[in-house]
Design goal:
By secondary structure, the chain is α+β, with helices and mostly antiparallel strands. The protein is built from one helix and five strands; from the N terminus they run αβββββ. Helices cover about 20% and strands about 35% of the residues. The radius of gyration is 18 Å and the shape is globular. The chain binds copper (II) ion.
Length: about 110
């Protein structure tokens, strides 16, 4: 009985760990499995700005899936190219944007207010 409980606890722990790993988090796409960092790809997306760092020229967007990039819906960080794209934007704003994924942090190359 004790061994069975132990096995059950192990299964639950593994299941919890797997669920935690599936949660969308803001991080470079290069860290994500199945996303090759070699070729540069582009795509258009829509989403909501959840964070802006004007000093670093970066922003975080909770975006809808972008098929051409193979991205599911998630919240992730982008480099604004150029950083002036961030001018006049606010957290909570709905935007559409052009994204570019090369090596390193994905870039946003155009932002349109919705
Ligand atoms: Cu993403």
């Amino acid at each position: 009985m004790r061994a069975q409980l132990l096995a059950l606890a192990t299964i639950l722990t593994l299941a919890t760990a797997e669920t935690a790993m599936a949660q969308p988090v803001a991080k470079p796409m290069a860290d994500m499995p199945g996303m090759p960092a070699s070729a540069t790809k582009t795509g258009k997306g829509t989403g909501v700005i959840t964070e802006i760092d004007a000093k670093d020229g970066t922003l975080t967007i909770k975006h809808e899936p972008i098929a051409s990039l193979g991205w599911p819906a998630m919240t992730m960080g982008f480099k604004a190219t150029p950083p002036s794209l961030l001018n006049g934007l606010k957290v909570g704003q709905e935007i559409s944007f052009d994204a570019k994924q090369g090596t390193g942090l994905p870039e946003v190359t155009a932002i349109r207010k919705q």
